[in-house]
Amino acid sequence: MGLVTTKEMFERAYKxxxxxxxxxxxxxxxxxxxxxxxxxxxxxxxxxxxxxARKYANPIYLKxxxxxxxxxxxxxGHDIPMVLHLDHGADFEICKDCIDSGFTSVMIDGxxxxxxxxxxxxxxxxxxxxxxxxxxxxxxxxxxxxEDDVNxxxxxxxxxxxxxxxxxxxxxxxxxxxxxxxTSHGAYKFRGEAxxxxxxxxxxxxxxxxxxxxxxxxxxxxxxxxxxxxxYGGNIPGAKGVPEEMxxxxxxxxxxxxxxxxxxxxxxxxxxxxxxxxxxxVFDPRTYLGQARxxxxxxxxxxxxxxxxSENKA
Length: 314
What we know:
By secondary structure, the chain is an alpha/beta fold. Helices cover 48% and strands 16% of the residues. It has an eight-stranded parallel beta barrel with strand order 1-2-3-4-5-8-10-11, surrounded by ten helices. A three-stranded mixed β-sheet has the order 7-6-9, with no helix packed on it.
C-alpha cells in the first residue's frame, strides 16, 4: 500500500467513531516504535514531521526513514496504511517543498494571521496540493503552549468560532481543519481542571457534517512518566495534559486526527534516564535507544487501543 493520503482514512474514522493517531517523528527509533505499534494493532497511522524535526534530522533523512519503514513492513508481510504529513507548515514554500518531495499530506498553519489572510494562504496551498494528489490540513483559532516553532501565550489563545470554521472550509477547500477547543501544545496544558469545549466541536460538526476535525496539543502527559523522569534526575514538575477519556470522547465525535508528541518524548526520556541511573556502565547508544524504542511502541499501542480506537481498522 505504501504512503496514502488521509482521505479514505478520515472517511472511515468519521463513520466509525474513532480517530487516527498523528505521531511526531524525529529519528529512526521513534519511527520504528510507531510503525511496530501500528502493525501489531493493525491500525492506520500518520507520521508527521514538524519544523523542529526538519531542522534536527533533515527532511531527506526523515523521508528515507519512512520509506524504509514501509519497505520493512511489506517484507514482513504487512500492509499498514501510512501517511507522511507536514505538521505546522509555516508558509507556502515549506508546504510546496514537502509536496514536491513526496509528502502525502501537509498542514498550512495560518492561524497567526487574520481570517482573510489565513483564507488566502490556505487556498493557495490547496490549489497547489490537490492537482498533485496531496491533501491539506488547515487551522483556525489559536492553541496556547510551546512546542518546536509554535509559541502562543495563554493570553493570545483563542477558541475557534464555528461560523468562521464553516466559512473557512467552504472558501479554502481544505480537507481537514484543526480547531481550538481547549487543548494546548507542550507538556504544561492546564493550570487548573482540564476542560474541552465539546459544545464548539458539536456546533462545527453540525455546520460541516462529515468533515474531519483535528486536535493538536492532545498529549495526556502520563503522570507515571513525569514521576519517572523526575525520579531519575529530571526536573519537570507540574506537567499536566489532556485526560485520555476526554480525547476518547472527542474521537467518538467529529475528531478524526489526534496529534500526539509530548507523551512520546516523556516515555523515551524517562526510560533513557532510568537506563543511565540503573546501568551507569552503559555507553552503547543501542542499549538506551533500544529501551526508548520499546517505550515508544508501548505508548503508541496504548493510545491506539485505549484512546483512538483505531485498532483493527487498517
